[in-house]
Design the sequence.
C-alpha cells in the first residue's frame, strides 16, 4: 500500500493542475496581508468604534494573528474549489487519459488502487492546508508581529496573546477535517464520471445547494439541517470560541466524518463494480 500511495503521489504532483491551488494561495495571501499592513489597522478601528467611548483598548490588536484569522474567514469559502481540482481528478483523470485498463492490469486489487488514490488525496489536502497555515500565519507575524487576537462574532472577544497560538493549531486541524469532507465528496463524484470537470462542478453544486438550505432560515429545512455537512463548514471557528462549544464541535466532527466515510464507501462500490471500457 505504501508503494501504491507513493506512485499516486508522484502522478499527482507531476500534473501541472496540482500546483494551481498553491499558486493562487501564494499570490492572494501576500497580497491581502501587505494591503492590510498598508491600511494600518483601519479594520480594528471600524470594529471597536462603537465601544471606544466606554472601553479603553490596550495592547497590539492589529497583528499577524488578526490578519491570519481574517484570511481564514475569507479564503475558506474558496478553498473547497481548489481542493476539488485534485480530488475530482483522482479517478476521473484516469478515464480521461485512457489509462484505466493499464492500471487495472497490475497485480493489485481494485480496492488497493482505490484506497491508495484516496490516501494520496488526503495527503494532498493536508499539505495544502499546512501550506496555507504556514504562509498566512508566518507572513502575518513577520509583517505585523504578535499580540492579542480580536475575534468578531455574535460578541466581541479579545483573546490574550498567550492563548492564541494553540487555538490556531486546533483551527487548522478542524479546517483540514472539513476539507477532507470536500475532498471525499469530490473523490466520490470522480468514481463514476470520465471527465475531471464533472466532479468539480458536482462537488461545488452540492456544497452550494446544501449551503442555501443551511443559511435560508425556513422551518421546512429545520429537521435535516443538523445532518448536512455544509452546516459545519465553519467548524474551525469553534477553536476561537470562549468557552468551547463542545456539543456543536462534536456534532460537526461526527457529521463530516460520516459524510467522508459514506463518500469513500460509495466510491468503492462504484469503482469495484464498474465496467472499464477506456
Sequence:
Amino acid at each position: 500500500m505504501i508503494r501504491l500511495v507513493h506512485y499516486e503521489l508522484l502522478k499527482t504532483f507531476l500534473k501541472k493542475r496540482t500546483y494551481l491551488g498553491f499558486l493562487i494561495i501564494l499570490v492572494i495571501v501576500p497580497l491581502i496581508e501587505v494591503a492590510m499592513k498598508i491600511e494600518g489597522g483601519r479594520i480594528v478601528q471600524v470594529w471597536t468604534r462603537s465601544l471606544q467611548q466606554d472601553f479603553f483598548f490596550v495592547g497590539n490588536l492589529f497583528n499577524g494573528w488578526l490578519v491570519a484569522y481574517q484570511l481564514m474567514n475569507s479564503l475558506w469559502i474558496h478553498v473547497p474549489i481548489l481542493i476539488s481540482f485534485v480530488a475530482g481528478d483522482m479517478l476521473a483523470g484516469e478515464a480521461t487519459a485512457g489509462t484505466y485498463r493499464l492500471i487495472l492490469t497490475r497485480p493489485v486489487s481494485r480496492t488497493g488502487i482505490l484506497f491508495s488514490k484516496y490516501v494520496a488525496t488526503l495527503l494532498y489536502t493536508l499539505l495544502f492546508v499546512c501550506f496555507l497555515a504556514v504562509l498566512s500565519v508566518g507572513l502575518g507575524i513577520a509583517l505585523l508581529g504578535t499580540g492579542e487576537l480580536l475575534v468578531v462574532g455574535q460578541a466581541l472577544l479579545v483573546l490574550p496573546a498567550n492563548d492564541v497560538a494553540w487555538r490556531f493549531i486546533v483551527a487548522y486541524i478542524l479546517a483540514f477535517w472539513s476539507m477532507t469532507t470536500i475532498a471525499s465528496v469530490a473523490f466520490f463524484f470522480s468514481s463514476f464520471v470520465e471527465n475531471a470537470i464533472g466532479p468539480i462542478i458536482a462537488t461545488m453544486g452540492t456544497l452550494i445547494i446544501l449551503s442555501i438550505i443551511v443559511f435560508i432560515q425556513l422551518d421546512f429545512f429545520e429537521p435535516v439541517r443538523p445532518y448536512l455537512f455544509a452546516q459545519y463548514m465553519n467548524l474551525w471557528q469553534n477553536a476561537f470560541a470562549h468557552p468551547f462549544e463542545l456539543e456543536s464541535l462534536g456534532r460537526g466532527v461526527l457529521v463530516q466524518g460520516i459524510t467522508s466515510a459514506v463518500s469513500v464507501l460509495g466510491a468503492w462500490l462504484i469503482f469495484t463494480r464498474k465496467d472499464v471500457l477506456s
